[in-house]
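User: Please look over both lines:
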Amino acid sequence: MFSSLSEAQTKSKWSSGIDFTQRSANREKGRWSLTDWLAMKERNRMMDQWLSLNSPSAFEFMMSGSYNSFKTDLGDGSEAKSHSSYKAEAAAYAQLVGVTAEYENNTEEGFNDLSGIFNLRLLGNSIQNTSFTIHYGQRTRTSDTSTLRQQFGQASLQLYLTKYFGIDGKYRYFLPTSTDELGDVKGDMTEAGVFIDFKALRIFGAWYKESQKNKIPAATEDTVTDRTGIRSGIKIFF
């Protein structure tokens, strides 16, 4: 009788006790192995590579060339004369800050402009997105008879109306300066235009007006020169 009771108690303990098979399966789920670590490392490497290829770069570059057709009004009552010039531009950005170099060759009026600009983008995350940027730079205008260096401040706005089409504009104010040949010089420039993007290529056109006022001490009146025209060209982003 005691033997039967002991056997029954043992069977009851096994039937209602711990399921060793389930515990082993649970251990297997949490088991770490070298094979698992190598597989996870490979997946992480592939994910890092994908992010590297698909994340926007911190560095952006732009090159531009344009043809300028404009009229020069000397403000002396004479008829405005038509002229043309060519302009090249290059810019490089690292996230929100950038630098720009501009060169305009105006052989018909006998001078050329070379500008260096520092840019700070306050709104927008790339040069091909809606953005608002402030600038500070210096323009050097060189002719056969004089050299004029003017610092300037500028604000520019770029607004995409659709994914591929937009408008832009800028206002540049030249700080007053003085030279022996030209006297006291000040001026400004306003530009407004439209553009259309084809991936990394942009075609643009803009109306612009540049005004320069010279005050020579020996002269009785100021000399005002206005250049008003159309700028058209292409930009390449990379």
Observations:
- The helical segments are 2-16, 20-29, 34-54.
- The first strand starts at residue 59 and ends at 73.
- The chain has a mean pLDDT of 87.
- Residues 34-54 form the longest helix (21 residues).
